[in-house]
Amino acid sequence: MSGLELWPEYEPNELKITPERIYALGMHPTTDKPLIFAGDKLGNLGIIDGSQKATTNNPEDADDEDADYEGPSITTLKPHTRTIHTFQFSPHDANALYSASYDSTVRKLDLAKGVAVEVYAPKDTSEDAPLSGVEISKNDPNTLYFSTLDGRFGIYDMRAPSERAAGLQIFQLSEKKIGGFTLHPLHPHLVATASLDRTLKLWDLRKISGKGDSRLPALVGQHESRLSVSHAAWNAAGQVATASYDDTIKIHDFSSSSTWSPGHTLSDPEMKPTAVIPHNNQTGRWVTILRAQWQQFPSDGVQRFCIGNMNRFVDIYTAKGQQLAQLGGEGITAVPAVAKFHPSMDWVAAGTASGKLCLWM
């Protein structure tokens, strides 16, 4: 991990991938080349091919400082009208990108055609229900999971007829904002949510009880931090990483989750983190909140995650809390707050509040 180096073709300040502050970032699962996608504050989606070479118009002028230099080729689309908070490449279709936005909608972008269609919006078109997360389970290409800034979690069947939000289940999981959620990669009925109410909670979607608006999935367990928890990320080994405003990254080990029966509950000691890493998470108003993001399919089987560092680095840790690397380099002038691994390759991309990109390979 320490051997990764910044993309040599362009400096980070030349890689303005979105017009505004980056909130969401990801790399396409293809292993042929790094394809980086970034969503910004105003609903723009920037796309860059990390294999392109810096060029001048005249090859003979490559060493001439006055030569007509061409910057990197960046594609910008605008699928949303407000902040793109999260997006996910479909596990079932390499050409589909699902994005969730503060404009209350989830859109599906066809990467081959460059066309985005709305796949979910609230039934009442005037309702303002900003979304904070979106995921499609690897078991079911038709079901969309999402979370909202007012503490709700939704399950939506995209095959439902056009009366918007038929086939929709909504659960009020928290009184406050859900900053992020993930499904367990191997057991997608297990959901981890992180909330402004300072808790990490695990839910089991196989068992839903209650009536009407009070219906809830079974609560497996919860762990409370001193301050708000910004994101909860599952990895395939059954570990959950959270970053909290109490300046820690916590790793919880639920590797026995494959044996849990519906309605299984965990005691407080079982919910305690197995590793607590001190980490400055005080982003303030102008830097996007730091989130720990796992590499989905590490080639060597070592579970690891990356997270932005307020001193203009990206930190990489193992599931045991050991630091593997601190990625930096020349020309990084802002905090690379939104950091993400490629699902299987050892490539790390990170975005800043000015829409600039850092890419380590």
UniProtKB/TrEMBL annotation:
Stretches with biased composition (Acidic residues): 60-69
Keywords (A to Z) from UniProt: DNA damage, DNA-binding, Repeat, WD repeat
Gene Ontology biological-process entries: DNA damage response; regulation of DNA damage checkpoint
Native species: Paraphaeosphaeria sporulosa
Top-level division of the source organism's lineage: Eukaryota
GO CC term (a single one): nucleus
WD repeats: 190-206
Pfam families: WD40
Similarity section: Belongs to the WD repeat DDB2/WDR76 family.
Stored SMART domains: WD40
Location of the region described as Disordered in the Swiss-Prot/TrEMBL record: 50-75
SUPFAM superfamilies, per the entry: WD40 repeat-like
Protein name: DNA damage-binding protein CMR1
InterPro entries according to UniProt: WD40/YVTN_repeat-like_dom_sf, WD40_repeat_CS, WD40_repeat_dom_sf, WD40_rpt, WD_repeat_DNA-damage-binding
GO molecular function: DNA binding
Function: DNA-binding protein that binds to both single- and double-stranded DNA. Binds preferentially to UV-damaged DNA. May be involved in DNA-metabolic processes.
